[in-house]
Design brief:
The chain has 11 helices and 9 strands. It is an alpha/beta fold. The protein starts with 8 loop residues before the first strand and ends with a strand. Bound molecules: adenosine monophosphate.
């Protein structure tokens, strides 16, 4: 239940936020079930309906919902991508406020990385960071873990809301929570992908597409549908090849078109109806890199 009586409170400093969260937890002790639950939705801003869907689920499931907006420099393997990452802060604040967000954490880079972010701690993420996004964006998931580690230690949420849009990232963060030994105190909720009417998965990066690129962008989702419709008809290597060509014809430069075991993300080369299979794509149109995925059953 969202705290709709109050206006959203914005914090830029960790100490102030933590004092407020302590007060929220104290207040929770007066509730009939003696429990405060804090839902956390970490974002990089430039918010859209996809982000809001996470927020809405959290407000339904928790007494307090906290969103963060932090464009994490440590996770951008391409400095140009970081420089061009969209920012719509005023609009974001309005969207959060009108959708029941109780607390917004808006830290500066120095607040999260007082000692800078180049002195990197290493997270043992195993094979998960060597495939797909890990392979094409070296160091990306280490950077994601650096920020999420800090944010989780600051917020100590009861529930963490993530989008299936970033499927591999969800698995990485679950692994991180295990490494941090917080799996008993934080429940991870993976929420469905929100799409535009034409199937394009909502993404902050979509704002960077011009009219012509935007018109081509649904090809990503169409490729996933093509995989789904043909998965039992063609051999998987042939299917992936055809799907890759489809994307190329639409003007994309595909990084990967993959079919994987949804549980492990290990690529599979033979269709097996007994396991849950996920199709994943990542492709670049001009300089904008988009990703998408969907279950194949
Ligand atoms: P970002 O701001 O891109 O880092 O995303 C913040 C959170 O919102 C992540 O957990 C994303 O997976 C999630 N998210 C982004 N796009 C969507 C979408 N289209 N549908 C659902 N969740 C999303």
């Amino acid at each position: 239940m969202a705290n709709n009586n109050c206006k959203m409170i914005i914090f830029k400093k960790t100490n102030d936020l933590q004092q407020h969260l302590a007060a929220c937890r104290q207040k929770g002790k007066t509730l009939p079930d003696n429990q405060t639950s804090i839902g956390f939705v970490p974002t990089m801003g430039a918010l859209h309906e996809g982000h809001l869907s996470l927020l809405k689920i959290s407000t339904r499931e928790n007494q307090f919902t906290l969103c963060s907006i932090f464009v994490n420099p440590a996770q951008f393997n391409d400095p140009n991508d970081f420089k061009k990452y969209p920012s719509t802060l005023e609009q974001d604040i309005l969207m959060l406020e009108t959708n029941g967000c109780d607390i917004l954490f808006l830290p500066h880079v120095e607040e999260i990385y007082p000692d800078g972010f180049n002195k990197k701690k290493h997270y043992d993420l195993g094979y998960l960071e060597t495939i797909l996004e890990g392979e094409f964006r070296p160091g990306h998931f280490q950077g994601v873990c650096m920020a999420v580690d800090k944010l989780l230690l600051i917020v100590h949420p009861d529930k963490l809301y993530l989008g299936q849009k970033d499927y591999q990232q969800c698995m990485i963060i679950e692994k991180l929570i295990g490494l941090m030994k917080m799996e008993k105190s934080i429940q991870v909720r993976v929420c469905p992908i929100v799409r535009e009417k034409d199937g394009l998965a909502m993404s902050s990066r979509n704002m960077r597409l011009n009219k012509e690129q935007r018109a081509k962008a649904p090809a990503l989702y169409e490729t996933l549908i093509f995989l789904k419709q043909n998965i039992s008809k063609l051999s998987l290597p042939d299917l992936k090849k055809e799907a890759t060509e489809l994307l190329q014809q639409k003007g994309f430069k595909p990084d990967y078109v993959e079919i994987a075991d949804a549980k492990t993300l290990k690529p599979i080369n033979e269709w097996d109806s007994r396991i849950n299979i996920l199709g994943l794509v990542a492709a670049i149109i001009n300089e904008v890199r988009l990703i998408d995925n969907t279950m194949m059953d």
